[in-house]
Amino acid sequence: MATMAKKAPPPQPGAKGEDKKGDKSKDSKKKKDESDEEVDADDKPEEENAAGVAEANQLKSEIEPMLKSGAGVKALTTAIDHKGQSVELLRMQAALACQSMETIKSDEITKFVDQATDEQLDVLMRVVYHGMSTGKNCPNLLIWHAKITDKGGIGAIMRAMCGKSLTKE
After folding, report:
1. For residue 98, which of 22, 47, 65, 131 is within the disulfide window of CB 3.0 to 4.6 Å?
2. pLDDT of 123-152, one tens digit each?
């Protein structure tokens, strides 16, 4: 009588010795997709970057005289109402809005927030979070945060946290 050789069971998924060719191709495809996204985000035509820088410089030249003359409320309104999508403009807008917020006194903060639209409140809240991330003037920004939350509610916080970043970093 001859003994029959036992057959080894088929390899289980994830077991040693399994051909991981499929896994490697998935990983390389995932890495390729991630690297494509990075290139797309940073690979903008030079004309767009130049236009963004020019627009940011124009906004700065418009707001700086307001700040020097003590018109912080007007400067802040101009900064948060300015529409644009370039990274350079958004960074300048956030910086100028933070500078403007520093010049506004506590009683003016209440007046400003009470008159602000919902859209302005959302932008202001994003500016507050951006300013806090720099670590500068946080006590003043916490006052702004409280006033905005009083009027805009928790929704203003959620929209700021979930919305697009002012600096797209």
Report:
1. 131
2. 999 999 999 998 888 999 999 999 999 999
